[in-house]
Amino acid sequence: MWNCQGSLSLFLISKTIAQEALPILYGENEFTFNIASWSYPKNSLSSPLIFGPLGEPHRLHLIRNLRNIQIIFLVEMHRFPDHWTVARYRGRIEHFIKVLKQHVDDENQKSLLKTLRIKFCPPSTLMLHEHRSYVMYPLEALISMSGIENVSVEGVEDWFAKCLEMCIKGQGGDVKEIKWPMVRKKTRKADMHGSKNMYVTTRKWFQPELDWAEFAERNGISRAFSEYILPGHK
């Protein structure tokens, strides 16, 4: 991410310089945020580490001023993706958007964000192509950032990238939620005495919550993906 540690000191000296320079700083530069798949020591899913230097409480409000954002999703290179990989991505995306909206969702402080670039699995952490389909669906949480003019998504399957780009731009209509069947499962009680029945979803950790197959078909986006992703869609 762009390093703001100490870089804004001059703005504190002169308000005139700050008034002239800050619009250029926020408007002409791209700010990069990294969202990783590994665990953080504290508040793993809502860690301020994803905001870099802007993660400090007295700086979070500055996020509203950003016009150009790039989000890079980092993947552990020597570990096969699992449930926690997906949970961390989804949780951190949701936290990122929650914090962003805290500072823009009012009448007088609308977001100035114009460009959003998403990079999944950058060159230094490339995974096998078939492994990417296991961990790309947490990115569906990004569609709540709808209404951004310029959007690009790289590193996921082409058809899914096109779907995300359309949704974040506010195009193509809503994405329907998948009604995954529920099954009854017997689990042990916390005190280890006896068991109880509870209903759990049949959705696997690598499957989406939203029906991207239906959205793609409705918007004329051709797709090709493994059958384990969306049973029933061919």
Name its key features.
17% strand; 234 residues; 6 helices
In short:
With 234 residues, the chain is of the alpha/beta class. Helices cover 28% and strands 17% of the residues.
Structure description:
With 234 residues, the chain is α/β, with parallel strands linked by helices. It has one domain. 28% of the residues lie in helices and 17% in strands. The chain has 6 helices and 6 strands. Strands 1-2-3-4 form a 4-stranded parallel β-sheet. A two-stranded antiparallel ribbon has the order 5-6. Keywords: Signal.
- The shape, in one word, is globular
- Please give the largest β-sheet: 4 strands, parallel
Count of alpha and pi helical runs:
6
Number of separate structural domains: 1
Determine the fraction of residues in helical runs and give it as a percent range.
Answer: 25-40%
Topology record:
Blueprint: H1 9-13, H2 15-28, E1 30-36, E2 68-74, H3 83-102, E3 115-120, H4 129-135, E4 150-154, H5 158-169, E5 182-188, E6 195-201, H6 212-218
Parallel strand pairs: 1-2, 2-3, 3-4
Antiparallel strand pairs: 5-6
